[in-house]
């Protein structure tokens, strides 16, 4: 019996051979969250869940070439951007995406450092952050990334509130302390919602930020509000974190799981 049509979404991200992060993690998440995911490779990495050796960047022209036939053929309503080589060229990519699909919603997960231990980017200039964030559907930094994106603020929370004047910001709480992990959504300079799950003793997972942002994109593509998508994305990610005690989380394999 055929399944009903699924919304189309696009991930522009790096290829992680361990499949914990990047394109492979995004597409696993998309599938289980009930959307059809396309993948455009922005970087080829040599890494595992605990070791990062090197990266080979995909030129911007090749990124566009990968995405163009997909955007021409399919009604892609949402895109997630992860690892990119040069943040100063990201506005050009964003402009190009919007020229191809004027109504596309974009979520940026700012991958500035690999969890296996490699710095991709130093902090961009404030004017570049304003340019990048203006018009985004959501920015999903963890606390160190938020501090790096807006170092003038005294705390990650203050930085998120400031940047949320340009786009909504979901500040991830995985790097904080305490028995609970709380992500906070900011819009227009104000905190608007909190999403809390218990902090698990073996809950650290390689690529968990990629899974969360991909799960949120899937929720948005399925018609959820931003708050609903953040809540359902957080719940899905929590299940991946609880799936086993290794650094590589398991996704789930039936439609009931996908819709939770």
Automatic annotation (TrEMBL):
Domain of life: Bacteria
Keywords from the named record: Kinase, Transferase
A Pfam family the protein falls into: Phos_pyr_kin
Enzyme Commission (EC) number: 2.7.1.49
Gene3D superfamilies per record: 3.40.1190.20
First-level EC class: transferase
Membrane-spanning segments: none
Pyridoxamine kinase/Phosphomethylpyrimidine kinase domain ranges (all copies): 16-245
GO molecular function, one term: kinase activity
Biochemical pathway: Cofactor biosynthesis; thiamine diphosphate biosynthesis
Cited InterPro entries: HMP/HMP-P_kinase_dom, PM/HMP-P_kinase-1, Ribokinase-like
Protein name per its UniProtKB record: hydroxymethylpyrimidine kinase
Organism: Hymenobacter citatus
Lineage: Bacteria, Pseudomonadati, Bacteroidota, Cytophagia, Cytophagales
